[in-house]
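Final report, Chapter 2: Outcomes

The project's central promise was a pipeline that accepts a single protein chain and returns its three-dimensional structure in a standardized token representation, suitable for archiving and comparison. That pipeline is now operational. To close this chapter, we reproduce one record exactly as it appears in the project archive, with the input sequence first and the structure output second.
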Amino acid sequence: MLFVHGNGVDHRMMLALDAAFAGSGPWERLYVDLPGFGATPALDAPGGLPQLADWLDEAVGEMLGSAPFAVVGTSLGGLLARDLVARRPHQCIGMALLAPVVDSVREQRLVPPHAVLVEDAALIASLSGADAMAYAELAVVQSRENWERFRRSVLPGLRAADVRAMARLEKNYALPSLPDDRLAGFDRPMLIVTGRQDAVVGYQDQWALAQRFPRATYALLDEAGHNLEIDQPQLVHAHLARWAQQMTQQATSDRAHQQQRDRPEHP
């Protein structure tokens, strides 16, 4: 099971998801840092989204070869995950997308206005200026518990990101074409979880995306912005746990079908 993080953070944002898969079977879980984030060196110029997608495909080829895999992508990782599966449709047994980018062109997204449902002025005042700005940018329900999750999972990646690599990515933040038409016929279990207050990618484009896939589950969470894992961890974990069970069943079914095909025929 491959985990692909979003823009500006690194794999540490997704480590908190690990508990959702504890009871779903012996999944080997691979958490990658995209180039320019975490411990992975930045790409050379141009270093845009097309190059990032190529890098991910090559990395998966080196790590997994032709072995079957499932993929969990969040934000930009949700777009990269779909592009990866479009390149390897027969190798992937399912996708889970958390607040995924549907269209990388921001002006074409349907997004709600920014909203903070619960403010905690004392909490914000207790943080350093940089930390307060980073946290308050996306926090929908401000609380000490919410901040602690942000501090552990998001802030380290924000601090480690290569700002020059991010600038190059920003200049070419689009794929030559969206991958979804190439995913026509993908009938494996798929999960799309969105936030009602997500002012970055929204939730309406994701609903339209879900309708393309016959095995898609779509969830819209209230009191959740773009950082779903931070705002509603229990609900996100519950949906991922169910999806992981579907993946285990899918893998078992695939093995049975393969054994049936490999069985020698007798006259």
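Archive annotation: The two ends are 41 Å apart (CA to CA).
This record, like all others produced under the grant, will remain available to the consortium after the project formally closes.
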